[in-house]
Write a structure and sequence with these properties.
The complex is a heterodimer of chains A (about 70) and B (about 525). By secondary structure, chain A is an alpha+beta fold. Chain A has 2 helices and 4 strands, in the order βαββαβ. In chain A, about 10% of the residues lie in helices and about 20% in strands. In chain A, strand 2 and strand 3 form a beta hairpin. Chain A starts with a strand and ends in an 11-residue tail after the last strand. In chain B, the strands form 3 sheets. Chain B has an 8-stranded mixed beta sheet, covered by helices on one side. A 5-stranded mixed beta sheet of chain B has the order 14-13-12-15-16. In chain B, about 35% of the residues lie in helices and about 15% in strands. Chain B folds into 2 domains: about 180 residues, Nucleotidyltransferase, domain 5, CATH 3.30.420.130; about 200 residues, Aldolase class I (TIM Barrel), CATH 3.20.20.70. The chains are: A alpha+beta (about 70), B alpha/beta (about 525). Chains A and B meet through helix 2 of A and loops of B.
C-alpha cells in the first residue's frame, strides 16, 4: 500500500518531503524514505502521486511491489 | 552609418572632456564611473554589464555599483557568496542533472554540501568577517530558492539580523515567483535574477521536459506555457515594486539562439535592467539530456555576436562566471573549500562592521584611480576614425592591472578595443582540469585555441618559448605593459596598432573563432 524511494537514485533534494499529503516522507542518512504505513499513494488527495510528480530522477519514487496496493476505505 | 555618427558623438564628448577644466573632467569621471565607460552604438555604455552611472538611473546605479554579479567594474573588487540551502526544484531543465556532483565539477546547480538555514547564516557571517570584500549573499539553489521558500526566507531572516549591511539576492526559475513577491519585498531583497530561456512554449518544450505546478506534473508545451506566463508575471510584479531584476538566459544553439533576441525585447519591456546571456554548459560526463544527446554549446564568436545584437536593446552582462550554487569569493575565484561546514562550526566568529567599512573605502579609492587612468588614455584616441576592432587577451590577478605571468593564467580577460575605447567582453578559461576532448594537447595549444580570436595577449611576463609559438599563431605576446592598468594599456596598444595599419607597417586581418571551455570557473 505504498510508494517507495529507490535510495541509490535519491539525490536527497527534499522536494518530495513537503508535498506529501500524508507527511509520510522523512530523511535518513542524506536520502528520503517513505513510511509505508502512512502512504496512501495520494489516493483521495491528488490525481497523481506527489512524490513521483516532483522527483527530479525518473523511476526513483515507485510503487513498492513488496507492499499490497492501498485500498481506500469505502 | 549609424555607428559612425555614434563614434563622432563620442569623439565630441571626449573633446569636451579634454577641453574642459579639471573639475569638469572630474565630474565627467564620476558620472561615467563604470567598468569601461565607453559608448556603444545606441549611445549608452557597452562595457560588461554596461551598468554604469552613465546609462542607469541614479537609484539603480546606487544599488548595483558594489554588486559583483551585476556591475562589471565591481566584480574585480567585491565578493559574493552563495549558500546552498535550497536543494529542491520544481522544474526539470535539459541542461541540468542534479545527481552529478564531484570536486572537479563546477557549474550552476551543483554543490558539495547542503546547509540548513542556521548553518548557512553562520557561514555567511564567518566569511564576511574573514573576507571584507564580501558584500553580497545570494541563494541560487542548488535547486530553486522559491521551491524551498521556508529555508530560503529563514536564511535571509537570520542574516539580516546579524549583518544588515549584506545585500541579499536570489536567483529563480520564476515558476513560484508570483506567490513570493511580497515576502521578497519584505526582506528588502533588492536583486532578483530570473532564468528565462524562452517566451515561446514551442521553444520551451525543447528545453523543459516538465514542471511541477499546483500538485501536478505538466509536460511539453503545456509546461512551457505555464512557466513563461509565471516568469513574465513575476518579473512584472517585481519591477512594479522597485526590485531590480536581472534575466539570465542559457544560449542553446539551434534551439533558442535566435529566439533570445525576442526574449531580450520581452524582458526589457517588462522592466528587467540587465540581461545575461550565458553559453550552454554541456558535456556527456555531466549526464544531462543535452550532454548525452550531443547538443553543443556556442562558440565564443556566436555568443559575442548574440550579446552584441541584444546590446542595442538593453544592458548586457558579459562577466558572468556561471558560479556553483555554493561559490564563495570574488568572481573568478572560489574559496568555498576554506569554509566547509565543519570548519565554520568550529570557528569563533566576531562580526566587525568597522573593518569591513575601512576596506571598502580603500577599494573605492582604487576604483577611482583606475577610472582616471582609463579616461586619460581614452583622450589620446580623440580624432581617430576607424572601423577596426581587435580583441586582446589579458592576464590579471585582479585590481584592474596586468599582473599575472602568462604561464600561470587559468583564465584570461578579453577586451575589445575600438575607437570607442576598451570594452570588456568576457573571460576565457584555460585551466587544465576536465579538458573535455583535448586531453593529449599541451597547455599552450589549449591556451591558443581559447584566445585564437585575439590579436595580442598582455601579461606581466611571457617566456621566450611561448612567445614564439604565440607569434606563429598570429597573437602578439606583449609584456611591456606589466603592472599597468588594463584599460589604459589596451587603448595605448590599439592606438599604436592603428598607427601601424595607417603607415602600412601591418595589415589588419579578421581573426578566427575561439573555443569556450565547458563549466564554470574555479581558481586553481
Amino acid at each position: 500500500m505504498s510508494f517507495k524511494i529507490v535510495a541509490s537514485q535519491c539525490t536527497g533534494c527534499s522536494a518530495c518531503e513537503p508535498v506529501c499529503p500524508n507527511v509520510a516522507i522523512y530523511e535518513k542518512d542524506g536520502v528520503f524514505i517513505i513510511n509505508p504505513k502512512k502512504c496512501t499513494e495520494c489516493i483521495g488527495y491528488f490525481d497523481e502521486a506527489q512524490c513521483m510528480a516532483v522527483c527530479p530522477v525518473d523511476n526513483t519514487c515507485i510503487i513498492d511491489p513488496a507492499q499490497p496496493r492501498y485500498q481506500p476505505r469505502a | 552609418m549609424q555607428e559612425r555618427i555614434a563614434i563622432n558623438d563620442k569623439l565630441q564628448q571626449i573633446n569636451v572632456a579634454v577641453a574642459g577644466s579639471a573639475s569638469e573632467i572630474a565630474a565627467k569621471i564620476a558620472e561615467d564611473h563604470n567598468g569601461c565607460g565607453t559608448t556603444g552604438s545606441s549611445g549608452k555604455s557597452s562595457c560588461g554589464t554596461g551598468a554604469g552611472a552613465g546609462d542607469l538611473a541614479p537609484e539603480i546605479w546606487e544599488k548595483v555599483k558594489n554588486h559583483p554579479c551585476y556591475s562589471e567594474e565591481a566584480h574585480h573588487h567585491y565578493a559574493r557568496m552563495h549558500v546552498a540551502v535550497a536543494p529542491a526544484c520544481n522544474i526539470q531543465c535539459n541542461y541540468c542533472n542534479r545527481k552529478y556532483d564531484c570536486a572537479n565539477e563546477s557549474r550552476p546547480g551543483v554543490v558539495s554540501e547542503k546547509l540548513t538555514p542556521e548553518q548557512a547564516a553562520k557561514k555567511v557571517i564567518a566569511v564576511a568577517s574573514t573576507i571584507p570584500q564580501m558584500t553580497v549573499l545570494g541563494i541560487a539553489g542548488p535547486g530553486d530558492p522559491l521551491a524551498n521558500p521556508e529555508k530560503t526566507f529563514k536564511t535571509f531572516e537570520l542574516i539580516s539580523k546579524t549583518a544588515p549591511d549584506i545585500k541579499l539576492c536570489l536567483s529563480t526559475n520564476g515558476l513560484a515567483l508570483p506567490d513570493h513577491v511580497d515576502t521578497i519585498a519584505g526582506f528588502n531583497v533588492d536583486h532578483v535574477t530570473i532564468t528565462i530561456n524562452m517566451v515561446d512554449p514551442e521553444v520551451g518544450a525543447q528545453i523543459y521536459p516538465w514542471i511541477y505546478y499546483q500538485n501536478k506534473r505538466y509536460k511539453g508545451i503545456d509546461a512551457a506555457r505555464i512557466l513563461t506566463e509565471r516568469q513574465l508575471q513575476g518579473l512584472e510584479m517585481l519591477t512594479e515594486r522597485g526590485i531590480l531584476c536581472k534575466v539570465n538566459s542559457v544560449m542553446i544553439p539551434g534551439i533558442n539562439d535566435q529566439h533570445l533576441v525576442e526574449v531580450n525585447r520581452a524582458v526589457k519591456s517588462r522592466g528587467a535592467f540587465l540581461h545575461n546571456i550565458m553559453p550552454l554548459i554541456s558535456s556527456p560526463e555531466h549526464g544531462t539530456v543535452f550532454g548525452l544527446n550531443g547538443q553543443r554549446g556556442p562558440t565564443a564568436q556566436e555568443l559575442k555576436a548574440l550579446q552584441d545584437s541584444c546590446s542595442g536593446e538593453m544592458n548586457m552582462m558579459r562577466h558572468c562566471r556561471q558560479c556553483r550554487a555554493d561559490a564563495v569569493g570574488l568572481l573568478g575565484e572560489d574559496r568555498s573549500a576554506e569554509f566547509t561546514t565543519d570548519k565554520i562550526m568550529a570557528m569563533e566568529v566576531n562580526y566587525d562592521g568597522e573593518t569591513r567599512k575601512a576596506y571598502q573605502v580603500e577599494v573605492e579609492r582604487k576604483r577611482q584611480e583606475q577610472v582616471t587612468a582609463k579616461r586619460e588614455e581614452l583622450a589620446q584616441l580623440a580624432g581617430k576614425l576607424s572601423d577596426i576592432k581587435v580583441l586582446i587577451a589579458v592576464a590579471t590577478k585582479g585590481g584592474g592591472k596586468i599582473n599575472e605571468h602568462f604561464g600561470h593564467v587559468s583564465e584570461f580577460q578579453i577586451y575589445e578595443a575600438s575607437v570607442e575605447g576598451a570594452k570588456f567582453v568576457g573571460h576565457r578559461r584555460v585551466d587544465l582540469y576536465c579538458q573535455g576532448g583535448f586531453g593529449e594537447e599541451d597547455a599552450l595549444t589549449t591556451t591558443i585555441r581559447a584566445i585564437n580570436d585575439c590579436v595580442a595577449v598582455f601579461a606581466s611576463k611571457i617566456g621566450g618559448c611561448p612567445k614564439d609559438t604565440l607569434k606563429q599563431a598570429g597573437i602578439e605576446p606583449v609584456d611591456s605593459y606589466a603592472h599597468e592598468f588594463i584599460e589604459r594599456s589596451v587603448i595605448a596598444y590599439y592606438k599604436a596598432y592603428l598607427d601601424q595599419v595607417e603607415s602600412g607597417e601591418i595589415v589588419h586581418q579578421a581573426k578566427g573563432d575561439a573555443e569556450i571551455r565547458q563549466g564554470a570557473y574555479v581558481a586553481a
